[in-house]
Write a structure and sequence with these properties.
The complex is a heterodimer of chains A (about 110) and B (about 230). With about 110 residues, chain A is mainly α. Chain A has five helices and two strands; from the N terminus they run H-H-H-E-E-H-H. Chain A has a two-stranded antiparallel ribbon with strand order 1-2. The longest helix of chain A is centred in the first third of the chain and has 24 residues. Chain A is elongated. The termini of chain B are far apart. Chain B is an all-alpha fold. The longest helix of chain B is centred in the N-terminal third of the chain and has 34 residues. Chain B is globular and about 60 Å long. Helices cover about 75% and strands about 0% of the residues of chain B. Chain B contains eleven helices and no strands. Classes of the chains: A mainly alpha (about 110), B mainly alpha (about 230).
Chain lengths: ~110, ~230
Amino acid sequence: MSQATIWAAMLGMGLISLSLRSSFLLLPERVRMPALLRRALRFVPAAVLTAIYAPELMVQSGTIDFSIDNARLLAGLAAIAVAWRLRRTFLTILVGMLALHLFGAMIGR
Amino acid sequence: MDAQALADFRAGARASAPVLLGVFPFGVVTGVAMVAGGIPPLEAILMSFIAFAGASQLAATQLLGAAAPVAVILVTAFFINLRFVMYSASMRTFLAGLPLRWRLGLGYILSDNAYALCITRYTQHPEDGNRHWYFLGAALPIWAAWQVATILGVVAGTSVPAAWKLDFAAPLAFIAMSVPLLRDRAMVAAALAAGITVVLAYALPMRLGLVLAAVAGILAGLLVETRTGKPA
């Protein structure tokens, strides 16, 4: 990754982050949020966050890999189970990392 | 700052204390994952100060590693941070009439946790006079804890061997953030639709599948919510 790309991403992210966070604190009082937008916004975090991690589990070296040899998929499923049952951030990450090494050692890669 | 403002600031800071225990490890993980994902240490720390957005920082790391163009990274950051539009809309009636520097400053340090603390306080104590001082008191320690934790993570990350596979901490962090959100059918539908779409669309250039997946997820969520007739 090039230095210029990192800097462009960094500055752009800062601008986007600040504008969205302050959005309605800066807009005039008469600007209201449409009802449909409010309903749609509720689904944004779940949809986007899932779309970010799903390929990390299911796509290995450019191809979709649903096999039992995919340690990242198995470790991810273990982490999903922990997050679902216990809703604990750090525990989820810890179990996922341990599972990755455990399955990796079992599969032998 | 008068005595009342100081008292409100302190009340916010007290309320933020238990939250810091959750923010800190997440900040460390983010710092480690950014460096493990190939962001140079200085840029990783700067990104944390400029963007102050854990999920976007991790997403940017993964996308930069996958050689995605800047535009895709920015669209992703836009989607990840859209929830703050919701937060700011629900808080502004409580913060009416503040000077611009306050509104921008509070916007910059707004975080998920700070929002949760403030909106709870504002609805339970409508008599509060210095709501912005409570906001500052609650949000500033969270911001500071995040920055310190990220720096520690970046420093630790530079000396961690690649064999530890700590780059995997990034997808795990996303699992930890998103799975607890799946509390109703519509939310599960949104996540499943987005996950399936992004994998099926993986061959699309420039990671455009991510944007497609976000749209598919939102539509699926709205559809199921309309059918089950349980809008939140």
